[in-house]
Write a structure and sequence with these properties.
Chain A: It is a multi-pass membrane protein. The complex is a heterodimer of chains A (836) and B (177). Chain A is mainly α and 836 residues long. Helices cover 64% and strands 0% of the residues of chain A. Chain A has helices at 2-32, 34-42, 54-84, 90-109, 118-135, 139-144, 146-173, 184-195, 199-206, 213-243, 250-283, 292-309, 314-332, 335-364, 374-400, 409-417, 423-430, 440-469, 481-501, 507-525, 528-532, 536-559, 570-583, 608-613, 623-642, 665-687, 702-706, 729-732, 767-770, 789-795, 811-821. The radius of gyration of chain A is 33 Å and the shape is globular. The relative contact order of chain A is 0.08. The chains are: A mainly alpha (836), B mainly alpha (177).
């Protein structure tokens, strides 16, 4: 501990000592750089072996030196936080360090030569942070809360801007601030630039606090989306200030509102367009996998700059580019490229964030910009804080009337406290035109003070506040088996009850969109191979194998050699034996599961996923312990992969390799058959009490699969365990042979006594066979289901077995009947089961 | 009415009840439910249908229908302040969990035994998993929840182990508000 403290201090000293003379030397050289050049040329008598070519490398050298310094600063700050005390958030410490550095530079120069210039900030430092945030955005969570986020972003920001501006103006008119050269419009302009919650600051503070997902996504989503409003308000008021008061009439105001629509939606659609471009690109980059990772950054940056060029909202553009492209890009690209993109993106974002905060500190040490007006500054702080609280509570109260799960009061408190301002506000303030706005320096000073206040003070107090208020924290990522099981059960229950009630519910749109997306968009934007491999089973299987392999190596090394036997890993090995042969030839293009969705950057290595999921692998070599640990993990994975999906399929936890398939058709078949079977059993057992004779028969899955909806043209995705004993040869001709799965070993299935029923043949058919309009009309009836009422009739008495041969009657007769029915879907053939 | 559902919702649900009721006798039987196609492809469909019918009966009238559905009302904040003398509302978290618990516990002995759990797992899981694997999953599940070592999950153990799960969201339907 002590050594790292010393190391940390050493670094700080190094920083100071190294940077100081360098900067001093450089800044002196700057004024002088012209002369040496001439002098050298004049004094050139002999061949100079070595020359000092500062002016050649000046600009890039300074840039790199600052990047280096920022890196060292981050290192020191992290070490400090780690070993000494962790009270101030890293961003706050960086700002303070920036003060120190700024002091050094100013001391050397008597002027602040290194400032955070708005173009540098907006074009070089901000885009990668936003791209990183949007690329790793948990989409499901984001879109399910989109309504709330939009309300906060649009109306909340407008409210903040208006109230702060007007209140300040009111106070000014009341004479509290003394004499300033400011008008109402300028107050409103100032209000609009100070109103926006800053995404960089929010990430920086919240990532250390780990509040629950919904709260986080609300604050964070708001901070991202409010840029649309901020840009519009800023530009509108800027133009109004230029126009002057008298020329503003209703037409201008209307244009202002209209421009919001154009800017916001234009930016978003532009971003979506670039996302499509990016997805299409990655679809074609099979042979240049080395550089396909670069496309993500290039196209993302292009989206940003293009929107900026068209005066649309650049942040919105890059946000939607990241959000929309993540699924397809991750599916299309090679695993290594995906890893590369992840790490590079985190690196760039982290670096930028560090530099931003550092420069925010450096910029402060500048006597030129500081104008102190107590009234203005204090009132701004007060109003910003108060109106944020009022606005949050107001809008939440309105929202809670419409939300399924209301936002709690405690969450609202954290939300209002988490309205941090950051570098964006400063950048906008620095962009102000001094001629039009004479009090620019006052505004810059105030903005800086607000930023420091929120980042440092609110950042420090955020964690204790969260703990004190007992805010619900982020759920532990490792769900227990029973929780997973119950989650899935709840989904099924909810879907069933929704169906019983016959209402569409909110879920309908999600399901409809998922279906649309699966069929059309994925077809366009995903590689065909990636589409096939969306199958849940493949991804889990691949991940399991990867983990096994890594496990094997680490265990072997612990034991001394890799030659120890692993014969007791029963469940795992069996699984591989069962499926290894068929899947061996299909190499899925699967991504490693990154189940940590946290936007924090420390939980991030590829191999950490393995170590994280095996917490109980102990160092002692007891085989039993190992077995238990492995079994535990296997049980988790087996359950996870095999649980049927429900229609609702709510996944709040963002996970990269679990591509959402809403309804796997094979699952649907299985469940349907099983249900029908059990219903038939119970029906028969209640109506008659006779035990029938058992008969062996084969079973037919073909016409079921044949009738499958068009959404699944390729049959190779259906490896989900339809055991198919394709029985009768006469029918196979009519059947698409891709559905035959003869490689599936029968022995791999299950012999489950539940599915060997004692069947009797009913003397009259169950009700769902009799009715002509058997189905209660529901919205879902229009949508394609594998079976319509007419088909239902045929299926029930038919033999549907899980695996091995079961006993059923009347299969032979039904065969012939099926042949007739195969191509006619509207015949109402009354199927009378026949005894043998 | 203790169910606290708004008038318009009741009307809507009554018309739905009516459309499901083919026999026109003012009560629903199991076959009426089974006619809904989506339930057939829901693994827990049959059990949920059973949940509507009180013990031993084969018909459910509208009141019973609504009573079961009332479990799925969203939890409201102000209900936390309700005095305890009026009894817990049907859509409280405990009652929602109880509803789910009863789906597992078929013999109504207030315990989920290993066999019952196996049955549920079998229903919810694909056919690829062998019995042994399923058995070990069931064992592990019970192990996670079982605190008193009786190899069964009682309702209190069930509640405790699910305290992190957001039951209020997962078992609520908005329009019943």
């Amino acid at each position: 501990m002590a050594s790292s403290v010393y190391l940390c201090l050493l670094r700080a000293v190094f920083l100071v000592c190294f940077v100081n003379p360098l900067i001093q030397g450089l800044s002196e050289d700057e004024s002088v750089f012209q002369n040496p050049h001439h002098q050298q040329e004049e004094n050139l008598t002999g061949l100079p072996i070595v020359t000092f070519k500062w002016h050649h490398v000046e600009t890039p050298y300074l840039v790199i030196i600052w990047v280096f310094v920022a890196g060292l600063a981050k290192l020191s700050v992290v070490e400090l936080n780690h070993h000494v005390i962790s009270v101030v958030p890293e961003s706050g410490l960086l700002i303070i360090l920036g003060f120190i550095l700024g002091g050094i530079v100013w001391g050397a120069d008597r002027a602040q030569t290194f400032k955070l210039l708005p173009p540098t900030f907006f074009y070089y430092l901000l885009p990668q942070i936003i791209l990183d945030a949007s690329y790793f955005m948990p989409n499901k969570l984001f879109f399910s809360n989109l309504g709330a986020i939009l309300i906060y972003a649009i109306f909340g920001t407008c409210w903040n801007a208006a109230t702060v501006g007007l209140s300040l103006w009111g106070c000014y008119e009341a004479g509290v601030m003394g004499n300033l050269d400011i008008g109402l419009l300028q107050f409103l302009l100032f209000g609009s630039l100070i109103a926006a919650v800053d995404p960089v600051a929010v990430i920086a503070v919240f990532e250390e606090v780990h509040v629950n997902e919904v709260l986080f996504i609300l604050v964070f989503g708001e901070s991202l989306l409010n840029d649309g409003v901020t840009v519009v308000l800023y530009n509108v008021f800027d133009a109004f200030v230029a126009l002057g008061g008298p020329r503003i009439d209703a037409a201008e105001i209307f244009k202002g509102i209209f421009s919001f629509v154009v800017v916001a939606f234009g930016g978003s659609f532009l971003g979506i367009g670039f996302a499509i471009l990016l997805s299409l690109l990655t679809r074609c980059t099979k042979h240049i996998q080395i550089i396909e990772a670069g496309f993500v950054f290039v196209v993302g940056y292009l989206a940003y700059l293009t929107a900026e060029m068209l005066s649309l909202s650049a942040i919105l553009s890059i946000t939607f580019c990241g959000i929309c492209c993540q699924k397809y890009v991750n599916a299309n690209m090679d695993e290594k490229s995906v890893t590369t993109v992840r790490h590079a993106m985190k690196l760039l974002a982290n670096g930028s964030e560090t530099m931003i905060f550092l420069f925010l500190g450096v910029t402060a040490i500048d006597t030129e910009i500081w104008v102190w007006n107590t009234g203005f500054i204090l009132l701004t702080l007060l109003f910003v804080f108060i109106y944020r609280i009022i606005g949050t509570f107001l809008f939440t109260w309105m929202l809670n009337k419409f939300r399924l799960v209301p936002i709690e009061v405690i969450d609202q408190v954290v939300m209002s406290y988490g309205g941090l301002r950051g570098a964006v506000a400063y950048g906008l303030a620095a962009l102000l035109d001094e001629d039009k706005i004479p009090e620019k320096n006052l505004m810059i000073s105030t903005t800086l003070i607000v930023v420091y206040f929120t980042v440092i003070l609110q950042g420090i107090t955020m964690k204790p506040l969260v703990q004190w208020l007992k805010v619900k924290r982020a759920a532990h990522s490792d769900l227990k088996l029973i929780e997973k099981l119950n989650n899935r059960a709840f989904d099924h229950i909810l879907a069933a009850v929704e169906d019983i009630c016959g209402r569409i519910g909110d879920n309908w749109w999600t399901r409809g969109w998922n279906r649309f997306e699966e069929n059309y968009i994925s077809w366009l934007l995903m590689k065909p191979k990636a589409r096939k491999n969306r199958d849940y089973l493949f991804s889990i299987f691949h991940k399991l194998n990867l983990e096994d392999a890594i496990n094997y190596v680490s265990e072997g090394e612990r034991q001394g050699s890799l030659a120890f036997s692993r014969s007791d890993e029963a469940a795992n090995v069996d699984f591989k034996k069962q499926f290894g042969s068929e899947f061996a030839d299909v190499m899925p293009n699967i991504m490693v599961d990154m189940s940590n969705y946290e936007l924090g950057i420390e939980h991030f290595s590829v191999t950490s996923i393995v170590k994280d999921t095996i917490p109980s692998v102990s160092l002692d070599i007891h085989g039993q312990d190992r077995k238990n640990a492995m079994d535990d993990i296997n049980a988790h994975h087996l359950l996870q992969q095999h649980l049927y999906r429900s229609r609702k399929h709510h996944r709040h936890k963002y996970s990269r390799s679990h591509f959402s398939i809403n309804q796997n058709e094979d699952e649907v078949q299985e469940i349907f058959q099983r249900t029908m079977r059990s219903r038939l059993e119970s029906f028969k057992s209640t109506k008659m009490g006779v035990n029938p004779a058992k008969k062996i028969t084969k079973h037919h899955k073909k016409e079921l699969t044949h009738k499958m909806p068009n959404g699944h043209p390729d049959g190779t995705g259906h490896l989900y365990g339809d055991e198919v004993d394709i029985a009768v040869g006469s029918e196979t001709g009519a059947i698409n042979s891709t559905f035959m799965r003869d490689t599936y070993t029968v022995g791999a299935g299950i012999e489950n006594p539940v599915f060997l029923p004692d069947m009797d043949s009913p003397t009259h058919s169950p009700p769902w066979l009799m009715e002509t309009e058997a189905v209660a009309p529901s919205q879902r009836a229009q949508r394609r289901l594998p079976w319509t009422p007419n088909r239902l009739r045929r299926l029930a008495p038919m033999r549907i077995s899980t695996c091995s041969t079961d006993s059923f009657l009347m299969a032979d007769v039904s065969l012939t009947l099926e042949e007739h029915e195969e191509h006619s879907q509207t015949d109402h053939v009354e199927m009378r089961p026949v005894f043998d | 009415k203790k169910l606290n559902i708004s008038h318009s919702q009741i009307t809507r649900l009554y018309s739905r009840f009516h459309s499901l009721d083919k026999g026109e006798n003012g009560a629903l039987s199991r076959e009426d439910f089974q006619r809904i196609p989506e339930l057939a492809i829901n693994p827990l469909g049959d059990r949920i249908i059973n949940a509507f019918f009180p013990e031993g009966e084969d018909q459910v009238n509208f009141r019973g229908f609504m009573r079961t559905l009332a479990h799925f009302r969203p939890v409201e904040d102000n209900e936390k302040n309700k005095d305890l003398t009026s009894g817990e509302p049907l859509n409280s978290r405990t009652n929602k969990l109880h509803f789910a618990f009863q789906l597992y516990d078929l013999d109504r002995d207030d315990k989920i035994s290993r066999d019952e759990l196996l049955q549920v797992l079998r229903m919810m899981v694909g056919v690829n998993i062998s019995d042994e694997q399923l058995g070990s999953i069931a064992d592990r599940t019970i192990q996670e929840a079982d605190t008193n070592g009786d190899m069964c999950i009682s309702f209190s153990e069930f509640t405790k182990v699910l305290e992190k799960v957001d039951v209020e969201q997962k078992m609520s339907i908005r329009f019943l508000h």
